[in-house]
Amino acid sequence: MAQRFVIIGGGPAGNQAATTAARLGAQVTLIERDIVGGAAHLWDCIPSKAMIATGGAMTEMRRAVGMGLVAVQAEPDFEALRTRIAAIENRLESSVTGLLQSQGVRLIQGTGRLVGPHEVEATTVDGVTEVIPADVVVLATGSRPRIPVWAPVDGQRVLTTRDSYPPPTLPEHLVVVGSGVTGVEFVHMFSAFGSQVTLIVSRQQVLPQKDPEVAAVLEDDFIKRGVKLLKGARAEGIDVTDQTVSVRCDDGRVAHGSHVLLCIGSIPNSEGMGLAEVGIELDGGYVVVDHNCKSTVGHIYAAGDLSGKLPLSSVASMQGRKIAEHALGMHAGPHRHLDYDKAASAIFTDPEIADVGLAEADAFAVGRKVRVTKVPFSASAKALINDDPRGFVKIVSDPATGVVLGGSIVGQHAAELISVIALAVTAGLKVIDLAESILVHPALAEALCDAAE
Ligand SMILES: Cc1cc2nc3c(=O)[nH]c(=O)nc-3n(C[C@H](O)[C@H](O)[C@H](O)COP(=O)(O)OP(=O)(O)OC[C@H]3O[C@@H](n4cnc5c(N)ncnc54)[C@H](O)[C@@H]3O)c2cc1C
Fold first, then answer.
1. Do 119 and 189 reside in the same domain of the chain?
2. Confidence band of 330 (pLDDT split at 50, 70, 90)
3. Would you list the DSSP string of 214-238?
4. Whose Cα sits closest to atom 48 in ligand 1?
5. Residues 238, 368: one domain?
6. Is the CB of 407 under 6 A from ligand 1?
7. pLDDT tens-digit profile of 44-57?
8. Could you tell me if 16 and 133 lie in one domain?
């Protein structure tokens, strides 16, 4: 008999687990309470990048003069932008739903919870309840924005990212709390639309987890755009009046604005799901998993943000795929463990920032000898043609073997270009393999070969 998979949550993790398991012959039921595609499509990756793309189009128009054009002006139209985002989301939802259905996955729109180790209860919006027997359960319920007790979120002036696609009106002055990836992307987004922005940075560097050289380029750009950085300050209270919001910080400083946006991380969607009751170990609400994404209960897996690993849509999808392969016995065959250290990631600011594998700063911190080569885009013909020579490509390799260990790119299209270094890192390619590739000219990717020489 086919293995019965029941998957709770239809984001990238749940979808990918469903399609892979169905393709490998399992009988699959997917329970999703909102839309198939998950928070990734509804609240996170897609609407944020759609907003950034629109802001980017405005920025390009401001750069018209540098391209030999007469200056052009564009104003944001939030109603049109809302329609545009909804159209993208609908299109993606129907393509994911179509794929799942074409593979015979049973979709239930409802809320799922465990009522026994092998029983999942689904409750639809109409209150209809069904208990579905499962040989394998995949928990993929994602996460949601963290809202501290001191933040009176109202969706109007005190916002989370979920209130920002776009907010009711363009903030005249936005105070962004949190300078991680999400925080800096929203700073970039709203300053491109024309808002004045203040960023509260709890440390002395934006993107505290990133290579300082990379973070410095972004800070430079923010300062040039007039973004005010409040460094070394932790927000601890918000006062809202008719006209202003004031964010109080622990060192006595106060940031004033018209709106405030919280970008201070997320919390897992694990409560009320019957997890602890069946013996699943949790840590801070995240499901504790091993290298196969297996929970402490053998046939129950967790993927995506709920697993407490790298909170990226791309990682969630790969976890979903690996779970299906592992649960269906492909462990010894084509299945390979997921290596989080080899996941590429990008920050969609201007310039874009992307990295993969070992960072120079991390190698330095552990005293590992590496070879670092760096090429600025100011030496790239294509960057000059595009009138944007900001940033650089950095490649980190093993000095003894030449194997590519990692890399960072700051500049136009960094999120696309990093794929080449990601492939090199995953496949164990050497710098010589990159250096001897004959690429298109003129192209930004040529900088990758130059950095590999
Ligand atoms: C603002 C923002 C921007 C981001 N941008 C990017 C990006 O550009 N690139 C990137 O790789 N990552 C990005 N991320 C991270 C990415 O969105 C997440 O890592 C990804 O969505 C995780 O996928 P998931 O499948 O675990 O969960 P989700 O996408 O959160 O999906 C979980 C699904 O489970 C459903 N669900 C929850 N509980 C239940 C239940 N009990 N029953 C039924 N259904 C349930 C939810 O409705 C949801 O649809 C961003 C995050 C944020 C906050």
1. no
2. confident
3. HHHHHHHHHHHTTPEEEET--EEEE
4. 38
5. no
6. no
7. 999 999 999 999 99
8. yes
